């Protein structure tokens, strides 16, 4: 910073009045350009985007200083233009991750944290294991549908945790996609050309579309709550987050509960399915790591499916999952915080209302912390000598605390669920199948590594691959595991309907 206090400025690209620097900032793969600027201007630089002030941070220590140590006034969110009241300033209470730092956010964060912690402590009532068994079976009978059935697996887990009903998954996934698109800069034009949002309704297709999307989503969430209430009255609702609300409230009422729970169901779909897809790609491209994971699983589990209790004995699997998330982060731009007070960083002034963007792509491509950053190198978590190695391997590597989950008071609440669901899903898949390139007309069908959308949570473009059962015996196990789980679940539902309302925790898998 070149000037005296108060007039000091952060480095950054030259700005045009109001427009800032958007003309050469592509909407697609924006994180790559932001990282390029970091390489030119340093680990904290300033830019403007159509009136918004943005500080881009690419050094973890600076993110820690601004977003953790100064969390008290750096934990607000910028408004998303193409959603109505995204910050819940007017009490719409719909989107916890997007809310400003207000009382609705505090209440829902507490409630969500308690619900997710209880579920983790009770091993998700066996729901993940149950759905993983279903997914393996689907891979056996319709392997080419894997790209969609893995989204469905994640959605079914969330729909069962929230409403005890996996059959809701298809609509849940559609709604998750709708919201994700609506909130992303690469979504509707009005998120970038924000003044367009204020056009009168009759010439404003963006606002009309959003009114429709929101009505559909809110109506569906309300229906889920009412349906769950009537199932509970009839003794047919097993343990789930809606039942938890209906039995001991702790939220302000049905409107808030319906959206807090509905949002939770949406947020666990693509966040988990995308890294699972990248894991499959990593295994196809790095068969020697697949073989190491399979050897570890065979040694620890033999012919049975892994459980969460096996985790300490599976460091190679954990390393491959963590390395996937480092190599192909699924929220590469990071999620911005907004400042609530004027502040300084060194001599440089940060006006109230500045967005601080912790650029995850850059943290995870830091060659000092991650030598050979562009390569998939799980050994960086397993062998001493690498900067990221940590012992004991019964505990490390762990996903918890990765920069990808964000910072300070806004840090992701789904870290344990992500870790546990990815362990069970990725582990079970490697246990059951060899993951390979497809061969067509004698040639390998490519699995491209750098094709994805550019939404806030990205996922790879559809690709093809082969799931080959590791042996006929393993294929039979996959089938019998699913048939038994399905039958147990059917009996449990009958028992609950027959008056055994206490039944419902565990036993599904
Ligand atoms: C790989 C998986 C995931 C990644 C990379 C991820 C990443 C993030 C990030 C970057 C944030 C914002 C942090 C910040 O502002 O500093 C966040 C917030 C959040 N995440 Fe996740 N997430 C993942 C999975 C999940 C799952 C599975 C759930 C729950 C089912 C979840 C629930 C939430 C919630 C509720 C918030 C909002 C917290 C708040 O605003 O106070 N996330 N996540």
- CATH homologous superfamily heading: Cytochrome P450
Side-by-side strand order of the widest sheet: 1-2-6-3
Q: Which spans have pLDDT < 50 for at least 5 consecutive residues?
A: none
- Main sheet makeup: 4 strands, mixed
Instruction: Write down the overall mean pLDDT.
Output: 94
Instruction: Describe the global form.
Output: globular
Structural class: alpha+beta
Query: What is the CA–CA distance across the termini?
Result: 59 Å
The share of residues in extended strands comes to 5-15%
Give the names of the bound compounds.
Answer: protoporphyrin IX containing FE
| Second rung of CATH, namely the architecture | Orthogonal Bundle
Share of residues in helices? 40-55%
Rg from C-alpha positions? 23 Å
Cofactor: heme
Pfam families: p450
GO molecular function: heme binding; iron ion binding; monooxygenase activity; oxidoreductase activity, acting on paired donors, with incorporation or reduction of molecular oxygen
Keywords: Heme, Iron, Metal-binding, Monooxygenase, Oxidoreductase, Signal
